[in-house]
Amino acid sequence: AVSETAEEEECSVYIVGGFVRDLLLSVPTQDLDFVVEGSGGQFAQALMRRIPDGKLTQHIKFGTAQIIFPDGSHLDIASTRWEHYSFPGALPQVEESCLRDDLFRRDFTINSMAICLNTERFGELVDYYGGKQDLQQRKIRFLHNISFIDDPTRMLRAIRFAERYHFEFAKETLDALHTAIETGVLSKLSVERFTEEVLLIFKEVNYLAMGQILVESGLFKAWFGKELAWNFNLDDAENSRDWSINMRWLVSVSQMKSYEIGTLLERVILNKSLRDETIAYVQLRQSLMERLTISEMDRLLNKAPKEVVIVLARDERFKVRIMECLEAGQRINMSLDGKALLQMGLKQGPEIGEILDRVRMAWLEGRISTLEEEQGMARQ
Ligand code: ATP
Fold first, then answer.
1. For the chain, which end, N or C, has fewer CB atoms within 10 Å of the first or last residue's CB respectively?
2. What are the strands, taking DSSP E only, across the chain?
């Protein structure tokens, strides 16, 4: 359908960026990015006539369009464009251009290749900047030496791609990365864009190695204004594959002092669930430092998000107490609930909750261990 639409619209269409890179590396990829030499918007509309189950959204200002399919997958279509940065870290100003310029505005040579989709040139690789050779030599190389200054998110992207594919940096690219860190270019980046790139790293299988480089290179220090005690321990590599992003994040901050986590939260914008869990983690850790009865502990552990409890149970200081409390919780064999108490003649009201609480605590503390004792206690 794409080739036919390109013929009909008399324009050249290419698939670009990550898809081409991953195709040449023979690794699976999901996103499809098309660029059109001509009007991307017009091409997208024409393509829609051939794929009626897609839903089209257009962003006229950026010359881009997106077709979303019923299964949630999507196709991004853009006109070939050139971007200017009015100041470092700014959002780019967009102008139409030819494919060569469009590919030159990209981050690294390995991401700057295109494959033509027009019928007579179908499958032709367009590689102006040596992307294929860099893929073969396993190199991350920028396209020009002010690349990191134009867009500092590329520093994080460079580290992400290098570790994802086990590539090395080309010498000038590595030098430029270090210079950019030292000269403070990161301070031009918005908190939103920084956070977005950092969280992409936490989604990667080998995020721990990436995290270590972010720390060792001084990039995190430059961003957060001080050294924070990040925990990116490669011993967790196996286990962390199944961890959620929140769990990975909580483990990574688990060796920071509370005030350090405070500094961190001021320099990132997290979604609500991640922010709430980070705060819940700090609060619960603080509470566990104090002497708590098993009932108090049970209450706190029940209230906290599951991931927060799991991360705290990894901490040698709390491990034994948390496990004891959770095991005691499992031994509770409570038969009573609100309905049962109403049937026993109690009136609806706060008293029901209080009784249930009291009975649960008695189970937990081992003061009752049979259903008869439980019934007796409820009647008191
Ligand atoms: P991933 O596998 O992580 O999705 P990707 O290469 O597909 O990698 P995207 O973020 O989807 O990454 O970007 C698509 C393409 O857009 C990239 O391949 C690259 O050509 C270009 N690109 C993305 N971000 C930048 C950037 N900050 N500067 C320059 N080009 C970029």
1. C
2. 12-16, 32-37, 55-59, 64-68, 74-79, 81-84, 93-96, 114-116, 125-126, 139-140, 168-169
